[in-house]
Amino acid sequence: MHHKELPELKEAKPSAPAKRLRADASRNREKLIGIAAIEFAERGGSASLEEIARKAGVGIGTLYRHFPTREHLVEVVYRREVEALCDAAVELARNNAPDVALAEWMQRFVDYIAAKRGMANSLRILFDTNSEVFANTSGMIGSALQRLVDAAVADGSVRSDIDISDISQALSGIYSAPDTPDWRDRSRRLVSLLMDGLRWGSARSRR
Fold first, then answer.
1. Which domain of life is it from (predicted)?
2. Are the beta carbons of 127 and 134 closer than 8 angstroms?
């Protein structure tokens, strides 16, 4: 007896409406993350999830479908901020002189710290429940800074006796500065002063 061959089963392709729904969901998620980063940086712990959803043009139910808790949203925003800061180091190094790249990156570090300060309470909860988040990102920023400093030292545009840990400590100090209305402007001025100190005594400044 001959058996008829079964027709080859092909994986069903998603319909156009299903694709559109997934694309819309992805865009909504990205908008929520972007708006949340701004709100956390500007409003800190008082940033409202309802306001984030409103500014992203979605309902609060949509936000909760993507991020069931505030901490879920904070984790994604925090990872994205770290990645953006590290990506900025690559971009700035490619398009600027080494000392200019370092100076611009340190100014962007202020924005990163602003967002991090705004997420402080949720980040503490995350650290207690999922310290892996920080283990995966802790070395990324240090490595980005190290590459920028090494390039500027090799170029002779900053001092050669720089200890990277001193720069890291100076930059991290702005995290614990008093939360005054002029905190960000003051932090930018301090970073500029730090950069002036790094340039002073460099091979280029002695020419």
1. Bacteria
2. yes
